[in-house]
Amino acid sequence: MSLLDKLQWRYATKKFDATKKIPADKLEELLADVRLAPSSLGLQHYRIVVVSNPEVRAKLREAAYGQSQITDASHLIVFAAETNIDETYVQKRIDEVVNTRQTSYESVEGYKQMMLGAVSRLSDEQRLIWAQKQAYIALGILTAAASELGIDNCPMEGFSAEQFDEILGLKEKGLTASVIATIGYRADDDPYSAYAKVRKEESELFIHI
Questions:
Q1: pLDDT at position 59 over 90
Q2: Which residues pair with residue 79 across a beta bridge?
Q3: pLDDT-based confidence at 76, cuts 50/70/90?
Q4: Helix (H) or strand (E) holding 59
Q5: Are 182 and 70 in contact (CB under 8 A)?
Q6: How far is residue 130's CA from residue 152's CA, in Å, rounded to a whole number?
Q7: Phi, psi torsion values for 112, nearest 5 degrees
Q8: Which residues lie across from 46 on neighbouring strands?
Q9: Is 206 exposed, middle or buried (0-12, 13-18, 19+ CB in 10 A)?
Q10: How deeply is 21 buried, as exposed, middle or buried, from its count of CB atoms within 10 A (0-12, 13-18, 19+)?
Q11: Which domains does the chain carry?
């Protein structure tokens, strides 16, 4: 099946089969795909929390208005934006570039100054919005990659970020929950799986200039 076929197959799964778990190798492949998501300046302005612990997910369900996907899906994925994107954060990225590409700090000094300039021009609020936007890009990769692997998924914004941060201890890590997704396998009796997919017509959606 093509990616187009897979995306036609996927839907925002409302009812997961709680007895079906994603095999470890498939989960590892999915996370490897998401790790390669693009981000502005390559800074990867977020961390990704993979929650499988049932006790923790029960608490998170209460912080997500009781939505059953939180506890019934195989795993809950929390995209948490970095709240401290500063010179130290940029330097860590530079260290990674130098070590991975086996190059010198001098050769990437221009890149470093460009990143520092971009960061310094933003207020704390703007940096957080910037980071959250990058997290959504990673969410898009997860949605497509999961579909390619035959894994059902449901992106979700209906939750209390403040409560998620508290339950998961994110604030202490310099993070805040931005968007979440549940992944697993649909229940046979989920009525949403039979609904026709509704999207704008191509002529209404795409503007060719």
A1: yes
A2: 48, 179
A3: very high
A4: helix 54-62
A5: yes
A6: 28
A7: -60, -45
A8: 81
A9: exposed
A10: middle
A11: 3-84+124-187 (3.40.109.10)
